[in-house]
Design brief:
The chain is of the alpha+beta class. It is built from four helices and five strands, in the order E-H-E-E-H-E-E-H-H. A five-stranded mixed β-sheet has the order 4-1-3-2-5, sandwiched between helices. The chain is globular, with a radius of gyration of 14 Å. The chain binds flavin mononucleotide.
């Protein structure tokens, strides 16, 4: 039996204030809790932090994804959560990741994250499909695989 997979893509604005070390600790604690909770709900995905924004993909059963997203939306560590898409998908793109962190190492992202850059990777400037594809490509690159 094939599973029903829904994919949710959003971006938001960082509200973790303080030093790069505080931001790094904040992102690490988000990843830690995601990697603990998501496997219990059979949810997989990827998180990106760049240019002061988070971009995230969550995939799994629609009700499981929705439940996690509802918690995420209430989190004061970010704001202006923009849902870009929530739709059925043919398969998981991040099957091996309870929550991949992509784009830069957490310390690098924390060090440079407040600076708007011109890499084109600002989650706030991307369409759903584009953000999803960038996250997918970067996650695969980090794993050493070819997309
Ligand atoms: C940008 C961002 C992404 C997050 N992603 C997840 C996630 O994928 N899974 C998750 O369980 N919590 C995630 N969280 C944390 C939730 O908002 C919430 O703090 C957490 O789910 C509470 O878990 P707990 O009840 O086990 O402490 C995220 C928070 C932020 C700010």
């Amino acid at each position: 039996m094939t599973e029903t997979v829904y994919r949710l893509v959003y971006y938001s604005h960082n509200r973790i204030v303080g030093s790069p070390a505080a931001l790094e600790a904040g992102i690490n604690s988000i990843l830690e809790v995601s990697r603990r909770n998501n496997p219990l709900a059979n949810v997989t995905g990827a998180l990106m932090f760049n240019a002061g924004c988070f971009g995230q993909v969550l995939e799994g059963a629609p009700d499981a994804v929705e439940q996690i997203f509802e918690r995420i939306q209430m989190d004061p560590r970010h704001s202006d959560v923009h849902l870009l898409s929530f739709a059925s998908a043919p398969a998981r793109a991040f099957a091996h990741w309870s929550m991949a962190f992509v784009g830069a190492s957490v310390p690098d992202a924390a060090r440079y994250g407040a600076i708007a850059d011109d890499t084109g990777y600002s989650p706030a400037r991307m369409e759903s499909e584009e953000l999803f594809k960038v996250l997918q490509r970067l996650a695969l690159e980090d794993e050493g695989a070819t997309p």
